[in-house]
Amino acid sequence: MRSTAVRRKEERAIEGSTEQVVAHVRQLIEQGALRPGDRLPAERDLAAHVGVSRPTVRAGLRALAAIGVVQSRHGSGTYIPDGPPSLGTDALSFLAALHGFTRDEMYEARRILEVGAAGLAAERATPDQIATLAEEVASLFASMADPQVFLVHDINFHRAVAAASGNPIVASLVEMVSALYYERRRDTAARASDRDMRDAAEMHRRIYQAIRARDADEARRAMHTHLMQASAHQAKEPEGPEAAVKVSAVKGRRAKH
To answer: What is the fold, at CATH topology level, of the domain defined by 4-79?
Structure first.
């Protein structure tokens, strides 16, 4: 039976080898040998080049996938994602579970990020990005009978605005927060009233129109109004039986600090 010291030595060796894989892929990116949309070399080629085993290569690629640097496509290989960069959401989800992020905190964070993003989108959005926003607005009005589908188009609209900001840091942060918001909201989306969904669709149209008109001030105002209104509407929704338990647990944790 191996001793604890031997196991720890082996674990450190594996960790070091994994870091070699990560460093190699980063070097390829920095040298311009890998760009968004490119496929990485095959596992066996990476293993031979770095001088590690294929399981170690896979461990390195999993580490890169966790932070959004690479994306595995079944039967096709591993790619550098094309489009807006995305950060892994696991860390934020763990923090949310640990600290019990409230609805007000979520919307406050969204206002900080998305109001500015809307203004930048009005200044920088490409014709294709504006067309994408128009499609999402049309889909919102078409899906008001299905809250879950409406939610998907709601999230997609906000992601599209962030992408149109032209700032990859803002786009990454909005992607991360949007994923957490969707995770929370999909369990409660059915509680939204028809009027609330109609108001939301109208506000998305107003934001889109401001961006299309290149009116940055109006885009920021419309996004701020929309997020404030959405937060207020959700606060009035009937709570499910699990809500009281969650609120009690959050209050208990915070009271200890």
So the answer is: Arc Repressor Mutant, subunit A (1.10.10)
Rounded to 5 degrees, what angle do the CA atoms 156, 176, 154 make?
20
Closest CA to 229 of 203, 194, 255, 257: 203
Return residue ranges of the chain for CATH 1.20.120.530: 90-255
Give the Cα separation of 35 and 159 in Å (integer).
Answer: 22
**For the range 13-19, what are the long-range contacts, defined as Cβ-Cβ under 8 Å and sequence gap of 24 or more?**
14/56, 14/59, 17/50, 17/52, 17/53, 17/56, 17/60, 18/56, 18/59, 18/60, 18/63, 19/60
pLDDT tens for the 257 residues of the chain, in order? 556 654 554 445 445 578 899 999 999 999 999 998 899 999 999 999 999 999 999 988 988 886 678 888 888 899 998 765 555 555 556 565 666 678 888 899 999 999 999 999 999 999 999 999 999 999 999 999 999 999 999 999 999 999 999 998 999 889 888 888 888 888 888 888 999 999 999 999 999 999 999 999 999 999 999 999 999 998 888 765 444 444 444 445 455 55
Q: Please work out, in degrees rounded to the nearest 5, the angle formed at the alpha carbon of residue 80 by the alpha carbons of 31 and 149.
A: 150
Question: What is d(CA 24, CA 35) in angstroms, rounded to the nearest whole number?
Answer: 14
What is the distance in angstroms between the CA of the first residue and the CA of the last residue of the chain? 44
In angstroms, the CA 217 to CA 119 distance is: 6
* Range 90-255 has CATH code 3.40.50.2000: no
